[in-house]
Amino acid sequence: EAIGYTPEQAKVVGAQWAVESGRGVSTAGANYNYFGVKSHNESVMKRMSEQYGIDVSQGDVVKTVEYINGERKVIEDTFASFNNPIEGFLGKKAFLETNKRYKKALNPENTADEFAQGLKDAGYATDPVYASKLAKIYNGPMRTSRPSWMAPTRKSNVSQLDWATTEVQPTEDS
User: Fold this and answer.
1) Which has fewest Cβ within 10 Å: 6, 24, 44, 89?
2) Are 47 and 99 in contact (CB under 8 A)?
3) pTM of the entire predicted model
4) In the chain, at which residue ranges do the beta strands (DSSP E only) sit?
């Protein structure tokens, strides 16, 4: 919400971060690109830089999954690269706002489901079940479980369920 998303949009953006980056682990061959923003549209990259003051550059060519004519394909593509995590999050917002095709999805009256489906319908992702993947995250018990298709990214001797449900015990100093 701090960068201008409505509360409903912020839920979806959090879920997108989880899906697109594996909970922050992968940035698609680019720096701080947690949302899979591609860099092959030079006019969009230029508008993002000019309107938001973000230095957007092109990342490495990497393999990624796209659905083409309903078939899952591994292709090579380039993704936008940002200078820091804040610019990565702002870059995602700038990408949406500088592309007219996302105008309907960005309607501030939209529910989380409408926003997620609007992104999918406008072409943000080619995965036919993208919106439902997002919904499983933002409607689910985000702190106590993760979808089976998402590998754990946090190493700890405490299980995620235990970590999320453990109450903090006060110390004598607190």
Assistant:
1) 24
2) no
3) 0.72
4) 57-68, 71-81
Q: Which amino acid is at 133?
A: K
Q: Is there a contact between 113 and 105 (Cβ–Cβ < 8 Å)?
A: no
Q: Is the pLDDT assigned to residue 152 strictly greater than 70? A: no
Nearest to 132 by CA among 123, 119, 151, 122: 119
**Helix 112-121 / helix 130-138 crossing angle, nearest 10 deg:** 160
Amino acid at 153: T
Angstrom distances, CA of residue 150 to CA of 15, 40, 130? 12, 27, 14
Round to the nearest angstrom and report the end-to-end CA distance of the chain: 31
Give the amino acid at 79.
F
Q: What is the pLDDT of residues 17-33, one digit of tens each?
A: 888 888 877 777 678 88
Q: Are 41 and 100 in contact (CB under 8 A)?
A: no
Q: What does the pLDDT read at residue 147?
A: 52
Tokens of 131: 């919106």
Give the closest residue to 110 by CA, choosing from 121, 99, 98: 121
Please give the structure tokens belonging to residue 61.
Answer: 């060519």
- CB distance 78 to 40 below 8 Å: yes
Structure tokens, 129 = 């079940």
